[in-house]
Amino acid sequence: MTIDENCEILLIPPEIDLIYLEDKQFMPLGILALASALRSDKFKVKVYQPVYRLFNQDIYNQVARHILQSKPKYIGFSTWCNTFASSLLLAEQLKLMAPEKIIIFGGPHSSILPVEILSKFSFIDFILSGEADFTLPQLLTKLKNNQSDLTIIHGLTFRNNKGEIIQNEKISAVPDLNKLPIPAYDLTKDIKIQKLDVGRGCPFNCSFCSTNNFFSKKYRTKSAERIIEEMDLANKKSGITSFSFAHDLFTFNKKFVFDFCSKLIGHRKNYKRNFEWTCSARIDCVTTDMLKQMKDAGCHSIFFGIESGSEKIQRSIKKNLKLQNVLKIAHVCRQLNMKMYASFIIGFPDETKADIEKTLELIIKLICAGAQIQISELSILKGTPLFTRYSNKIKFDGTFSNFSHAFIGKKEQQLIIQNPVIFSSFYYLPVKSLSRESIIILTRFINMMGKFRNTLFLIRTNIIKDIEEYNLLHIFLQNKEEIKKQFLSKNSNSQILIHLIYMYLEYRYKKDLSGIIQQVFKWESTQNVLKDNYITWKIIKAKKSEIINNNYIQHKKENSYLTTPIWEIFMSRYDLQHIIPEMNGWIIDLSETKEGNFYYLLSVVSNKNCKLLCISKKDYELLDLLKNESFELFKEKAKTVYSDQEFVEWLFQLENNGILINQGPAK
């Protein structure tokens, strides 16, 4: 998105250094809501879309110059904890280049620490805490009209004429979200899945969560009619049919959920519009009937924060889930063919090895039930009860929780070390039960296991028997050094788990290993290694001579091509779409599966997604030549089975699937 047109205010999203993760789309929902509110008050607004990764000072300078091209008078930053250092460094550079620009910070991270941030960083002029849908237009109007009385703006922290920091009265949550203008979705482009601001606030008191500091405990949703209206608008403007509902707890009000689903189903029947959507919930805020109704209304996946498999830790962190319901909900989701995502945290201060063992057991059982798992080390966030109690014990070692997954360079790290309170999410809390190293390796290892959930689902009966007999944490600690060694090796992370699962399969099944299990394991192994290769490929931007087989290939001396290392071909005895659990609706009885010769191409489209394409035997043979021989042999063979036009069309297909990169006219 270009920003070279002049504007009054330019808004910078918190995704300032995350947009380069290819599975993420640029959809800064909070910024879009503010942009719409400002437009309603006749302000000319632009949204900055990151186009560079902020690696060094030269790039910060370049980005700052790019932003200033639009000649904004006001520059607003929305902030998250994980990209806050980059936001600060960019804001500082903007102030150095254009001291007259007014810089305003807001968003979740700034809202928690307004006085501390304003005290430390003189280049920030104002901080607006909380929901700024009304207060940001109010502030800009006063500044535009040179009105000096800013004390009436709730949630504002600023310096008065004497340089004293003034913190105004806290802002209340927006009571009726239906009265807000529809977010400026038009400021984003090429969106396939659109986020929708469907509600705000969570009434629960989890001790590790900082959400209530920004959205408050006041639970609110937009009306069913308003949400459907926004879905319709996106569909009419951009043809979008997939939506992600932004609300930490969409299902808290059961009556609302049933009403929304009923109206959306009716809308589909009346207008023939099939919308699909995702949401977040708690295990104790859904029922089987609700999930069935949600599925009928187009919900295809749901995210649950579980956090711990220990009842004791559930009480300690005030999550208070009844864990016996977790697996029940997982089975319901699988039966409905609804994806279930479950998140966990490890490293709570009073967590014992017995508690961690219970968490591991629940995670394995959920993976075997088809759920997708993610786990992170505990981050101590400012404004939470855990921070209040343990902030004086946090430590820094330069290794961050995957919760804080932004790029950190030397300048960013210097800020983090100098300001532990402001950057507490980059610190860790030592615990007695496990060493820091063990926690880091364990979380990485568990996150990898989710990549093989189809294989584990097929062998779940034996796995569940084994975890009831053996202590998982003990086994991990016994083999930690070997796992650590593998992490530090040149092998991809996936290859570590491939080796271990293969050993388990050989041990458990010996010579009677089912062919179906072998084929599913082969598919998952291949795609995960390709995804690892894809990430490396994107990072190093390999030179032509370093690409697989050192292939530099030409076509008709008009265009040059490079082969990529992010695709693979293989032959299977089974039709994979019918034996891979997540593709066949998690059908258990595969006894009628027919055997034959099936040929496939796997190509990576992002660091999380692979395409599985069924190809012909002749395509398989030709691609084998491209993989292992030269382009000339590939072309020569292809010309015996394809016409010139068919061959050119096939080249285009290979480009579209990431197998070839067209470098333009050959030199």
Plain-language structure description:
It is a single chain. By secondary structure, this protein is α/β, with parallel strands linked by helices. The chain folds into 3 domains: 9-167, Response regulator (Rossmann fold), CATH 3.40.50; 192-394 and 429-507, Aldolase class I (TIM Barrel), CATH 3.20.20.70; 527-664, Outer Surface Protein A, domain 3 (Alpha-Beta Complex). 42% of the residues lie in helices and 16% in strands. The strands form 5 sheets. The protein has a 7-stranded mixed sheet with strand order 2-1-3-4-5-6-7, with helices on both faces. A 6-stranded parallel sheet has the order 8-11-12-13-14-15.
Please outline the helices and strands.
Elements: E1 9-12, H1 29-40, E2 45-47, H2 57-68, E3 74-78, H3 84-97, E4 102-106, H4 107-112, H5 114-120, E5 126-128, H6 135-144, E6 156-159, E7 165-167, E8 193-197, E9 199-200, H7 212-215, E10 220-221, H8 224-238, E11 242-246, H9 254-271, E12 276-281, H10 288-296, E13 299-307, H11 311-316, H12 324-335, E14 339-346, H13 353-368, E15 372-377, H14 385-390, H15 410-418, H16 436-449, H17 453-458, H18 460-469, H19 472-478, H20 480-488, H21 493-509, H22 515-540, E16 552-555, E17 559-563, E18 567-574, H23 576-579, E19 595-604, E20 610-615, H24 617-628, H25 631-638, H26 644-656, E21 660-664
Parallel strand pairs: 1-2, 1-3, 3-4, 4-5, 8-11, 11-12, 12-13, 13-14, 14-15
Antiparallel strand pairs: 5-6, 6-7, 9-10, 16-17, 17-21, 18-19, 19-20
